[in-house]
Design goal:
about 525 residues; 2 domains; five-stranded mixed sheet; globular
Amino acid sequence: MFKTYLSPRNLCFAFCLLLLIIRLFIASNTGLGVDESYNARGALNVRAGYIDHPPLFFWLSHLPVKIFGFTRLGLRLPALLLFTGTSLFVFYTARRLFSEWAGLFAVVFLNLSFIFTLPVAVWFQPDAPLMFFWMFSVWLAVELFFPKKPLTETKKYLLWSFLGISIGLATLSKYHAVFLVAGLFIFMLARREFRTWFKHPAPYLAFILFVATISPLLIWNSQNGWISFSLQFSRALPGNGLSFHPEWLLRNIAGQAIWLFPWIWWWLIKQLFRTTSKTRHSTKHAFLFWLAVIPILFFTFITFWADTQYRFHWQAPGYLVLFIPLGHYFARQWIDQPAKLKRKIIAGSVLLTVLAGVLIGHMNTGFWQFYGPGQITKMTGGSFDPTLEGVDFDEIRERFENEGWLADPDVFACGVRWWQAGKIDWALRCQKEMLVFDRNISNYNLYQNPRSLLGKDAVIVRFPEENDKPDVAQYFDSVSKLDDIDIRRCGRTELSLEVFYCKNFKIPDAGAKDYLFTPGLYSFN
């Protein structure tokens, strides 16, 4: 009886439930990051498409926000639930391909990697639904390609139909889903026993359902100059002429290792090579190889010429698949060297807990002043502690309330960069109209047309040491510098934000360097 309760499946369920409870606490008690703050208004403004990302993660958070309020937990709840589902689909996929123990170890090490256990599993980002529907699609494909018993025609059509819809939902989460389609297609083409599917009607029905599922995204983009597609795909292209930057490639590889934790990243890379060597003789390994290798190689090697900056998570769907053969590897180690594996799990758990505890604790309190993140950043040319990006700037709201700006319908808010506008917007809980003095097109171009604000006053909040400051004076009759807003942690001022009160918003004179009234800039639907 006791062994039944300690079966790998029950241990997996208990592990996922425990992590869900812990993440609920983290989600409720940590501030929104830069991207989360910027995305927050999208959960209130439901539409068929957005400029930066496909719409699904906005849609998913809209209902929780209506039920639980416009709160951290309301925004993040879908991510918490979806990643729990992702972990379970990893377990069931590994169980079908290898064993229950492989599934358990795959889930354990997946949740011991930093990028999956916090950013993907907690944050209000498109990655949580992407990983869920990516893994759900993989599980459906396993049911199709590796069934326990021969499939009936009805089940073939059902599985392919669900697969088409699931890949469509993954695409509505993030455009990475194109690599899932590519992996499945190449796998079927490369293995003779699966080429017969190209003669069966079911995959073509799946394609029709896929297109139907993403139709809102296609229609919205077709009506808006394919802005979302072009913006995302342009990030893989060289900026100003083709030039090669080995330092960008090395930075990206190092970033992947850090985000996953170096030892887990190394184990996954070894599994990628082991899987590669087994593709000729093992259909299961060939299946996993093609689903993993394409996003990892593509998003790594484009950094040789494209400055993707610090987006080290783009390879994550490929790594997600690699946890399955990694679980199989550790399941075999569990038989041969159980004590050694226990030490690895305990060490990984302790390191993750300590690191997460220190970072979350420092983010909320700022206790790590001596050679902490702030000091390290300043040594490398930065200006402030990057963990402040995960702090809610509630002092902005307090200032707006004290000055009467929050309740005044004739005053709107402004930022000078999209990410700064996001932090301001979230601090005000999106209760004020928001404009951004920035050439970069962002979702704020969807939410507010500047012409509707003509004649009103504005409060501009600007971060210090901002380069290439836009000329805002041309848009107003007068601009007055006010006292700064001090952002504090535990009573200590960490950052001072500049504040300007601007009277009578207007269209600038002809010939000015216009940031807001350029034709077409706010013409999106």
